[in-house]
Amino acid sequence: MPNREREVDLARRAKVIEWLKTEVVDHVAHLLKGIWEGSQVKIVDGLASLISCGYILGRRLGISYRSLDEAIVDKMKKHRQDGHQLEDWYGDISALEEHLRKR
């Protein structure tokens, strides 16, 4: 690939990453607005958008979907072992860990 094409590709990749970062912020705002309004439709949409954007941003940064899934499972395992409050109170940590393992 000629030098100019590499520069254009690098600039395009950087621009996409910056755009995805703004999308994350936008999705958080959408989610918070949905929570404020008590709209389950907006909450689900905001969470789905935020999670999918996180996966795509990770991919653009060189992290595979599988690696991200494994990192989340590892994090849940550590939280469970450390006695995280959400695990103690609701069992959320082990429920998410089990959900991800079944996929």
UniProtKB/TrEMBL annotation:
InterPro entries xrefs: DCTPP
UniProt-recorded name of the protein: MazG-like family protein
Tell me which Pfam families the record gives: MazG-like
> Where is the organism placed in the taxonomic lineage, from the top?
Bacteria, Bacillati, Bacillota, Bacilli, Bacillales
